[in-house]
Task: structure prediction
Amino acid sequence: MASLVGVFNVAHSPTCYRPAEEWNQVRASRTLRADVPMDDLDTNRKKKARVQAAFATLRDRLAAARPDALVIFGDDQLECFDFANFPSFAVYVGEAFEGALASGERAKVRGHPELAVALLAGLMRRGFDPAFCMEMPKPERGVGHAFFRPAESLTDLTTPLVPIFLNCYYAPQPTALRCYQLGRAVRESIDAHPGDLRVAVVGSGGLWHTPRAPDAYLDEAFDREILRLMAAGDARGMARFFDGYEVPAGDRSQDVGTRGRGATGMPGPGGPQGGTRETCNWIAAAAVADGKPATIVDYVPVYASPIGAGFAYWPEV
Ligand SMILES: [Fe+2]
Result:
């Protein structure tokens, strides 16, 4: 039988990959709410060091788990899909795919068709109807950063990857509860797979962030509650909390936007809007390990972006 050997949740924010010396340039290019704390260069350097230490911790943990394949719950930010056809959920079942590293260099990684097909069929059997991709929709671009950042930060790019796409950004998105259920169905499908495979799972992105939105801020209390529930092993509670959140009146940072290149203009399903919905990638991964407490490696409030950069793993799954 396939065995689940590890679950990891990790930030993938572009700011985390830039030198600390550039963080306040990032800040200057954005329109932050006036009460967002201002970190000086020394503080940013210390935060960047924490981000790197957290990546290193997760990388070591993942290496120790010796996975044959890595399933990544990630989102597509119009990198391979577009509004002509945007799936709520999709599974890539092909042999290999390309993507860009944080350096801009291109790399190719292997897929894992056997596991991907087992997960796709397992999801269908359990009442899900994901799209599937036998080829990358835009092979010249490959897959987006939600998949390639964890791949480059946590692996040496030789571990085969199974990308599972969740629509996080573009309203109307699946609810957090649905993403939780997706994670549970993936877990059952892994457990039911007869192949002799060691499988690890990653949730990519989050936590609170609304990149380039007007009046952006960081809701650390929201992130802390998500982390508390995760550390308590309560993935369903994470979903309940997420879906129950109400956008404060007048909060422009969470506007769904008007119909155009980067927004649908359609209403969301409730809960936060913007990049914060990448937390649903975390909730899906947490659901895979539901009932088991997560270890929070670090939570770094990067005010320059601003984003709550979180890092966690499950010592037992
Ligand atoms: Fe992202």
Remarks:
- The mean pLDDT is 97.
